Amino acid sequence: MTWIKTILPKDWDEALRNATSWRKKMPKEYGTTPIPSLAVLASPENGGGIVESHTLLPETLFHAFSTHTSLMNESLPLNRAQHEMIATVVSVANHCFY
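The chain above was modelled as a monomer; its predicted structure follows.
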């Protein structure tokens, strides 16, 4: 859950709705989380997670997550497990606690 101000989906203006258009291009397995408690904590109704923390800057949200979506494209040679492994190693190397 974020500790900064976020804008809930019910309050999104047209700019924010357009800024999240990249979600339609994400591989379907990225639309779910295997850990139910995280899905609840990061739900938009609870202030969201990393995506919702960008709602104050719609243009930044669009460009950052459009890039991420392109990198997760199903036509690329890496599968989700490999993406997750790379993300985990990078997080450890960066001393990231989440």
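The longest helix spans residues 58-71.
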